[in-house]
């Protein structure tokens, strides 16, 4: 019998939530020896769980479980910039599967790939040559969250084509497996001076809909939509309580339906007015509806990070998000109603979902 | 032989790795490389690009703070410490 599996990355290890019916959940963990884990995903192709982790003491590594969390191993072989130029892998932030390879995004900004299921790694690209990239490692230019690769968007039909997000710089696309890159930031808003027209944007979360031309992104300043596979962007913030947020998820079967969690853009970065809400559009961002049923509506100062919300692919999709205060909320009805399925986890970095046998 | 004393955060990461190990080496880095031969991947948990000791890993040779190039001798005691940090 198949079950729904949530892989939850936290500041103190990886946890797994499992359910047969998406209503009753059981929790396992922590795994990965309690290391800070920034992104944990399930790869349907290999049946493995991968977790990108960075210990304050012992550095960065990718943990792997081939048996749904029963046993774990980790490797950082090749996950290095070498001893020559002073660059360091200080953190691994994000993971993605592109065909037969596993991608990991790192700080300082670079993309490593593994073609053997995470046993060994090699540097794929640092996106060198982009406008301003020569100063990406300059400490003076580091944003508060540090500068690294914070996300990928892969293409199910073409493993050589994918997007990478450079934190505070923008989104870039490759169509040759990472050899060359094109900025994809045209039309994005930015409220600060910049040296270049094509870079200098703060892309928090980039997602692709079931129809590949349609993409969405939560930006530092506004929600945006693309109808040409990221080549140009239009702002769709109007109707939301603010322009700032991190987490976003797109409906697996309907390109017009998209979810976002607006948070205060100041220092707090928690949900507005202490009332938890996920916002949904069913018309590509022309209008927005707040979804609150089952979510706490007083004294709920919840933050959700960029990998913190996900959606499953069932006929009636389930939506899930994890907070920086350790709660996981789930909806089995496309966000109409919610329940709290874990309450006391460490701060959550990411939530991913899969259906497993 | 140099006796290496390892932090408790390291031993769960490698099957069969004890808290105390004896190796023959001339320097701290040489001692870590000896451990790497028996437990592949261990060097990476203590040493970053440079090579340099990871920021929160400290080593003491015969109770004196040292670095990767610090000599060790037969009978030396090499303490590898995970610095107090986190919360």
Largest sheet of chain A: 4 strands, antiparallel
Using the CA coordinates, give the radius of gyration of chain B: 12 Å
Shape of chain A: globular
How many beta-strand segments of chain A?
28
Residue share in helices of chain A?
under 10%
Q: State the distance separating the first and last CA atoms of chain A.
A: 6 Å
Order of helices and strands of chain B: EEHHEEEEE
Quaternary organization: heterodimer
- Strand count of chain B: 7
Largest sheet of chain B: 5 strands, mixed
The span between the termini of chain B is 36 Å
Spatial strand arrangement across the major sheet of chain A? 3-2-1-28
Specify the overall morphology of chain B: globular
The computed structural class of chain B is: alpha+beta
Low-confidence sequence ranges of chain B: none
> Count of DSSP helices of chain A?
0
Strand order of the largest sheet of chain B: 2-1-7-5-6
Q: Rg of chain A from C-alpha positions?
A: 19 Å
Most extensive interface: pair and counts?
A-B, 20 and 22 residues
Question: Can you summarize this structure?
Answer:
By secondary structure, chain A is mainly beta.
């Amino acid at each position: 019998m198949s079950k729904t599996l949530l892989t939850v990355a936290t500041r103190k290890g990886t946890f797994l939530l499992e359910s047969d019916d998406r209503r009753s959940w059981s929790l396992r963990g922590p795994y990965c020896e309690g290391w800070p884990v920034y992104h944990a995903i399930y790869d349907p192709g290999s049946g493995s769980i991968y977790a990108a982790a960075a210990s304050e003491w012992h550095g960065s590594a990718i943990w792997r479980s081939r048996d749904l969390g029963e046993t774990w191993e980790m490797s950082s072989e090749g996950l290095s910039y070498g001893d020559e130029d002073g660059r360091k892998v200080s953190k691994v932030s994000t993971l993605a599967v592109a065909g037969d390879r596993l991608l990991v995004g790192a700080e300082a900004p670079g993309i490593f790939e593994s073609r053997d299921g995470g046993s060994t790694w090699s540097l794929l690209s640092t996106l060198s040559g982009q406008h301003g990239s020569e100063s990406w490692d300059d400490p003076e230019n580091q944003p508060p969250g540090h500068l690294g690769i914070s996300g990928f968007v892969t293409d199910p039909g073409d493993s050589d084509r994918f997007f990478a997000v450079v934190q505070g710089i923008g989104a870039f696309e490759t169509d040759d497996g990472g050899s060359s890159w094109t900025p994809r930031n045209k039309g994005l808003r930015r409220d600060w001076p910049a040296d270049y027209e094509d870079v200098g944007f703060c892309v928090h979360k980039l997602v692709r809909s079931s129809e590949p031309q349609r993409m969405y992104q939560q930006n530092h300043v506004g929600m945006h939509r693309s109808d040409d596979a990221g080549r140009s962007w239009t702002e769709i913030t109007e109707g939301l309580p603010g322009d700032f947020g991190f987490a976003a998820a797109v409906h697996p079967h309907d390109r017009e339906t998209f979810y976002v969690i607006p948070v205060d853009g100041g220092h707090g970065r928690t949900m507005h007015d202490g009332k938890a809400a996920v916002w949904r559009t069913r018309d590509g961002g022309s209008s927005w509806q707040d979804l609150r049923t089952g979510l706490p509506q007083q004294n709920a100062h919840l933050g959700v990070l960029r990998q913190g919300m996900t959606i499953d692919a069932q006929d009636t999709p389930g939506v899930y998000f994890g907070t920086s205060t350790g709660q996981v909320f789930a909806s089995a009805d496309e966000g109409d109603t919610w329940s709290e399925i874990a309450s006391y986890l460490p701060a959550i970095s990411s939530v991913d979902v899969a259906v497993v046998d | 032989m140099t006796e290496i004393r390892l932090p408790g955060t390291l031993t769960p990461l490698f099957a069969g790795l004890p808290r105390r190990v004896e190796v023959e080496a001339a320097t701290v880095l040489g001692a870590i490389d000896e451990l790497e031969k028996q437990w592949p991947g261990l060097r990476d948990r203590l040493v970053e690009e440079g090579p340099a000791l990871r920021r929160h890993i400290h080593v003491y040779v015969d109770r004196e703070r040292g670095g990767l190039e610090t000599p060790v001798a037969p009978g030396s005691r090499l303490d590898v410490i995970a610095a107090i940090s986190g919360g």
